[in-house]
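anyone seen this seq b4? input:
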Amino acid sequence: MSTVMMAADERPIAPVPTIVSWNLTRRCNLACRHCYLDAVQRGRTSCDELNTSQARRVLAQVAELAPGAMLVLTGGEPLLRRDLTTLVRQAAAQGLAPVIGTNGTLLDERRAQTLKDAGAAGVGVSLDSADPAFHDTLRGVRGAWRAAMRGAAAARRAGAALLLQTTLFEENRKDLAALADLAQSLGALALNFFFLVCTGRGATQTDLSAAAYEETLARIVKLQHERPRLIIRARCAPYLRRFLGLRAGESADGYGAWSGACLAGRGYLRITPQGQVTPCPYIPEVIGDLGTAALREIWERHPALTRLRTELPGGKCGTCDFRYSCGGCRARALAQHGDLMAEDSRCAYAAPAATPPEPAPAPEHPAVGWEPAAQALLERIPAFVRATVRTRLEQCAAQEGSCRITIEFMRAHRPRFPLSEWRKSS
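predicted toks r here
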């Protein structure tokens, strides 16, 4: 967990969200057995979801609170919203980086191009296996795998950055290398492995055992080292930082200072189809309603978010030698113990005997400035990795005693994975 500065009135100064996930609709054309939203198959309208004018007002609040944030527009299936292009266009115009989170089955070349032209920074397509049969069974519709592959290919042909999203189960966790092959064949920028949090319909699914978590995370780290041209990440698995040996505030090998750690309520929030706010998609506790309260007020003042930002976790997580750099998954703690700040019992790690708890991270390094040309180049890097690149460059500059980042400095510290816009611009 990050340290939090205190204002004169002793209230913590809230960080700025870097990622906002918005479930635009519960409607879906599939019936995925692990859906955290418990999405439903229904028509193209729903009386309890925000309409276009209401959604536009929410967008304005997001842009005001979190300028430049990545806005994940998902569902259900967001392509079932008739106004999706309108919302993407407004989000991009207000300086956000809209990303479409879709099952891919409804995405053809025309729709992909329309979204790209409207300002979509990228498309995340769910693909849960290299085996079509497993994916189709999980998603509840025959032919879903092939349709998802067509949708992913359409996104790339439209020029959108492509992410593949995989939810891990015991049945597909041996499939990592094959999925990486698929991601590379499709020209994906990143492959994200999501570790199941048992909420929504996912509550009926079997989570991985603690031993399986450990084995799978080790394989993900190894896979990233073997395939440096593809960004491979574990999501909802903050223990990854222990495998990387990264302490609080540290970054290495393309992993940002907090990459992999739980961001719920600290750099991340979620908006439901009805305009309610939760700390993340897997924490169902509603902390505000945008129909009656402003997003900034909710984000800066709600007690649950203050706890997430300022309290150490309980149990073994609170005494761990990775208690700040990892801290456990807060959604799992809530699901397992009914308390956001309880220990994450899914983690199998036990600190070596006599190892002291991890100390609080040192204050952040002094601000590093950016020359205008370097800042312009940074803005051309895909939104999915821009924050990581910024953090890495600023830390390199601080370590080398440089107070200003120039074009030359950026070129001398290129990330080890390829970024198309970086190559075009440098």
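Confidence is low (pLDDT under 50) at residues 1-10, 200-205, 417-426. The first strand starts at residue 19 and ends at 23. kinda curious what u guys think
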